[in-house]
User: What shape does this take?
Amino acid sequence: MHHYRQALLRMRQGDSDREIATARVMGRRKAAHWREVAGGLGWLNTDQPLPEDEAIAHAMGAPRRASTTVSTLESHRERLTAWVEQGVSGAAMHAALQRQHGWTGSYSAVRRLVGDIRRQLPPETTCRLEFEPADAAQVDFGAGPMLLHPDGNPRRTWAFVMTLAHSRHQYVEFVWDQTVATWLGCHRRAFEWFVGVPARIIIDNAKCAIVKACQFDPTVQRAYASGIAGEIPPDQSLPEVWVLDDDRLEAARKALDELTHQPWKHWTCAHCGEQIEGPFEQCWQCGAPRPPT
Assistant: This one.
């Protein structure tokens, strides 16, 4: 647009089309056409202010394209635009055009038009989440590499990832399974590595943590929900033991009985002086651990 404005300025100063071409602003034929358009709009009158760029662009219209630059897929642009918005790959578009519409062009033509369509689409919007330091951590399992198992055979691994929501620092641990025990153990080791525990844990739909996925009221594994005991119904945070081998049922019942019937203790917190009763290993006032007996 700058060269049109420069040519118009020179025309208002009295330069001829030859002088404008000699100054390499634009060619003589183009300058003659521009003079005709500008004269018809009264822009050559020096008493009038120079037009804005938008008015000049509107006066010149869309630039003409050479026939060799017009894609042979131009008649399919609307169809390809819908496919792009649906996430269809270029190879699938090319095959569909050949199979369903008898198009005989190359894949490169599809790729060029798809690129032009994507440049004209509005950018995808994202929502940035803000977190305070120590406010939350995000945890999930992801697919890990194939590694050599202690039994001597290569096995697939899983990557436990805990990401601090504020700093984006990460703890990653490769494990052999996604059991509840592994899940909880990874949490403990991550907290030890970070030397701290965030106020909240944001989990995805890992089966070892979420029994039933729901947008508003998900069901959490009891072992994972024990950290919020007192804020949810008691029967949802009681310890539980999963038995995979029927021969170990009695041992599991014994372990569960020990967990649910811990000895009653009476002790005084050395940190705040609070009197603590019951099977509590931490002071409910300040959180200090029970002193060793």
Summary: The longest strand covers residues 136-148. The beta strands are 136-148, 154-164, 170-175, 200-203, 210-212, 219-220, 265-268, 275-278. Residues 80-120 form one domain.
